[in-house]
Glycosyltransferase RgtA/B/C/D-like domain-containing protein (Candidatus Gottesmanbacteria bacterium GW2011_GWB1_49_7), 205 residues
Amino acid sequence: MLHGTVGASSLMKKYSVILIFVIALIARILYGTAAPTVIYGADSSGYYALGKEMFAHPTLQTIIHPYRTPLYPFFINAVFYSIGLGGAREGSPDFTYGLEVVVVIQMILGAAAFAAFYEAMKRWVPQSMHRLIGLCILLDVFAFGWERSILTEGIAVSLVLITTTTLLGTLLSPTKRNFIILFFLFTLGFLLRPALLTIPIATLP
């Protein structure tokens, strides 16, 4: 009996990231069931239109915009093109379906980012505090709401968590590979919302 208990505990530790990911994803699905609205406003329309221009006419003028960073418009339209709906007209059934796919991907990214961050925190905070922090982030319905929006915040929270996780991991293991990944993530952050780059740096012990 003891051997079975130890074996189950060992298995849970081995697959803890997957387990946390599944729990985080289920929480998002439940939230989406209760609040199925996809938030799409004037800013969302601007991001979508800019992304369409990027794909239709990839020039510096369409990529470097005075008011909008390029990553999120590119992300939205990359999703649309990947499912064969590139250039869908706003308000059409294809467009609505494309937005739903974008939201699903944002939810998956959010759950994965949370799972990675939760696992990384084990090395930096006491177990009791680690679980409390994890619970607070897991039940952060504001993040769930942003993931259901067609705004930069839809992936910004996930990117901040992943960047912070990688930064903490690089401090423990300062390898060339980790620095390259960290540089890539900071570059994505700059192309999404430059102001958010200060958050991972603020977590430095």
Notes: The chain is about 75% helix and 0% strand. Residues 85 and 97 are 9 Å apart (CA to CA). The chain has a mean pLDDT of 86. Residues 17-153 form one domain.
